[in-house]
Amino acid sequence: ESLDKGLEKTKTSFFSKLGKAVVGKSKVDDEVLDSLEEVLVSSDVGVNTTLKIIERIEARVNRDKYLGVQELNLILREEIAGLLSETNSGDETDYSIPKDKKPYVIMVVGVNGVGKTTTIGKLAYQFKKKGLKVVLGAADTFRAAAIDQLQVWADRVDVPIVRQEMGSDPASVAFDTLSSAVSQNADVVIIDTAGRLHNKVNLMNELTKVKRVMQKVVADTPHDVLLVLDGSTGQNAFEQAKQFTKATEVTSLAVTKLDGTAKGGVVIGISDEFQIPVKYIGVGEGIEDLQVFNKMEFVDSFFS
Ligand code: GDP
Predict the structure, then answer these.
(1) CA of 149 to the centre of ligand 1 (A)
(2) 113 marked among binding-site residues
(3) Cis ω on the peptide bond leading into residue 160 (within 30° of 0)?
(4) Ligand 1 in contact with 116 (CB < 6 A)?
């Protein structure tokens, strides 16, 4: 129910826009498909994914000859769920991590302001609640505020944090964090990294170095490279996904601020376009306002 509440804006807007688009219509024709295309694009589903969805619906119209607008919702829902299934296994309901990887290492990337620190704090809280031992690493050493904000969350959740001075080597912080986690027998390590996009080569070099140094402590780490995107920024989120996937191998997504936006469609578009699963969604500023992404719940909240 909190998901419904969190996504209220997305759902109202999508549903009412779609309703307006088909008013007075009984069957799906080119005009309805055009309106649908507009609704999807304005919900930030993204052009490529929108076209994919429209093509699939067109194919069904051609096959079945007649498609009533009442059925359109149902079919759209199926098609969107199908798209999300291609990248999201989707049955996850809790914050579980693989038991055979200890410590399980999550490297978090994303530009400033998207909700990276908040997401790390919320995640640490959830893992701790499950009885897991969490260690945070403040490897965003570019801004003093980033280190301080992470400290605030570490205190709030009551988990240890490894930090150095501002301007110190991020790879060195990551190394210390993993070493500390190993000696404490921790279950999960979450490493914050700097999100500077203005210099792509620097970003790439920095993330590569952080990874390489981490692997000196625990082989095959990070296990997860989690890209945090602000779901209310639409095309910017797409652009950031493009840049980060070029700079490093992103393995999962967290999409934040879906509570404050009419543009939840970005989740569908980005997951499809970059073929990366959405693991978490942020639906508020509070410590509990993070949810494990469940594709059917999401699609239902989009349509119901
Ligand atoms: P960072 O610079 O990427 O680390 O961003 P922060 O974690 O400091 O978050 C930036 C702002 O976004 C803060 O005011 C957060 O409270 C807010 N924020 C983060 N996640 C969410 C969310 O899911 N919903 C809402 N409404 N605000 C969020």
Answers:
(1) 11
(2) yes
(3) no
(4) yes
Atom of ligand 1 nearest to the CA of 140: 4
pTM for the whole thing?
0.93
- Is 233 close to ligand 1, i.e. is its CB under 6 Å away? no
Atom 26 of ligand 1, residue of closest alpha carbon: 284
The residues of the chain scoring below 70 in pLDDT are 1-13, 15, 90-93, 197-198, 261-263, 304
Which atom of ligand 1 approaches the CA of 289 most closely? Answer: 23
In the reported structure, the alpha carbon of residue 210 is separated from the centroid of ligand 1 by a whole-number distance in angstroms of: 24
Q: What is the 3-state secondary structure (H, E, C) of the chain?
A: CHHHHHCHHHHHHHHHHHHHHHCCCCECCHHHHHHHHHHHHHCCCCHHHHHHHHHHHHHHHHHHCCCEHHHHHHHHHHHHHHHHHHHCCCCCCCCCCCCCCCCEEEEEECCCCCCHHHHHHHHHHHHHHCCCCEEEEEECCCCHHHHHHHHHHHHHHCCCEECCCCCCCHHHHHHHHHHHHHHCCCCEEEEEECCCCCCHHHHHHHHHHHHHHHHHHCCCCCCEEEEEEEHHHCHHHHHHHHHHHHHCCCCEEEEECHHHCCCCCHHHHHHHHHCCCEEEEECCCCCCCEEECCHHHHHHHHHC
What was the pLDDT predicted at 99?
Answer: 86
